[in-house]
Amino acid sequence: MAECYLREDLASGEQALEADPRALLAWSRGLADNAAPGDVYRNKEGRKTLRFDWRGRSWFLKLHSGIGWREIAKNLLQGRLPVLGASNEFRAVKALEALGVDTMAVGAYASLGRDPAAIQSMIVTEDLVGTVSLEDYCEHWAQRPPLFAIRLRLLCKLADSAGRMHRAGINHRDFYICHFHLDESTLQQPSPRCYVIDLHRAQIRRRTPRRWLVKDLAGLYFSAMDCGLQRRDLLRFMSRYTEGGLRVALGRDRALWQAVEQRAERLYRREHGRQPPEPGR
Fold first, then answer.
1. How far, in Å, CA of 253 to CA of 215, rounded?
2. Cα gap 218→197, rounded to integer Å
3. In the structure, what pLDDT confidence band is assigned to residue 90 with cuts at 50, 70 and 90?
4. Cα 232 from chain centre
5. Residue 228's CB: how many other CB atoms inside 10 A?
6. The whole model's pTM is what?
7. 174 an active-site residue?
8. Is the dihedral of CA 34, 84, 166, 136 positive or negative?
9. What GO MF terms are annotated (predicted)?
10. What is the pLDDT of residue 265?
């Protein structure tokens, strides 16, 4: 099975690419083989992730070379769905774009092969130059709280992105604040630019099952627990995320949010070996 996407501006001019999966995969392998060690971010389990410069811009390449049946079996035995290639990420990015959720910009994508264990695929996305992960941006919030307006805009932005994504049947599976990248130059705007990244494990269905809602939302909450959150911050997030606002969140959806809190606290205890901080009043 062959799939291919090439953005129009990359198919013309100098160094134009060919809209053919074999050609794109060959080009990607050349980049991967010649990448400097400092530009390689990951190289294991059949996936190599690297940064490269091309056409005067910075880009990221994820090259999937097939994970093998042993890795597939290991994932399934551990109750995890294996990532077979770049198609998950490509489809998730395009779905989020259609929803108006800030995410990565895809330049090229290709996939080739029918054997699930040996699919060859690649995806190239623009480097989000000038952005910072929310994990880094919020690192010192507990000691140096931000302006209320900044806190409110970011809370609303995350809740809006998560709500749109989940209502459209998309779940991330690695939904942590480190996978949101903020353009600080937009912080004075009513809705700052905050990009959802690392979508290679995302799932798309007609409807997001409750267990995956809980997993995503608990991951997000867990990853923000050391950011000096206030109880009112959590309520604002719940209100913005939930269609129908806080009345529905604390009524019909109360059990969902209780499950989110319990899972987030378990994650924190497991990761840090201590009790999570209590939200302020």
1. 15
2. 18
3. very high
4. 26
5. 19
6. 0.93
7. yes
8. negative
9. ATP binding; kinase activity
10. 97
**CA gyration radius, the chain:** 20
Spatial contact of 64 and 121, defined as CB atoms under 8 Å apart: yes
CA 146 to CA 149: how far, in whole Å?
A: 8
Calculate the CA 273 to chain-centre distance: 26
Angle at 103 (CA atoms; ends 184, 230), nearest 5 degrees: 55
* Start-to-end CA span in the chain (Å): 55
- Going from the N-terminus, what domains does the chain have, and what CATH number goes with each? 2-126 (3.30.200), 132-272 (1.10.510.10)
Q: Give the model confidence (pLDDT) of 41-89 as tens digits.
A: 999 888 999 999 999 999 999 999 988 888 878 878 877 778 889 999 9
Kind of pairing between the strands at 203-204 and 170-171: antiparallel
Interval 109-133 mean pLDDT: 94
Residues in the chain: 281
Joined together, the tokens standing for residue 195 give 């990009």
Give the pLDDT score at 14. Answer: 82
What pLDDT shows up at residue 275? 95
Q: What average pLDDT does the structure give for the chain?
A: 94
Please give the single-letter amino acid code of residue 280. Answer: G
What are the residues whose beta carbons fall under 8 Å from the beta carbon of 79, sequence distance 6 or more? none
Find the catalytic residue in 20, 39, 174, 226.
174
Q: Given this model, what pLDDT does residue 44 score? A: 86
> Which amino acid is it at 178?
C
- 113, 120 in Cβ contact below 8 A? yes
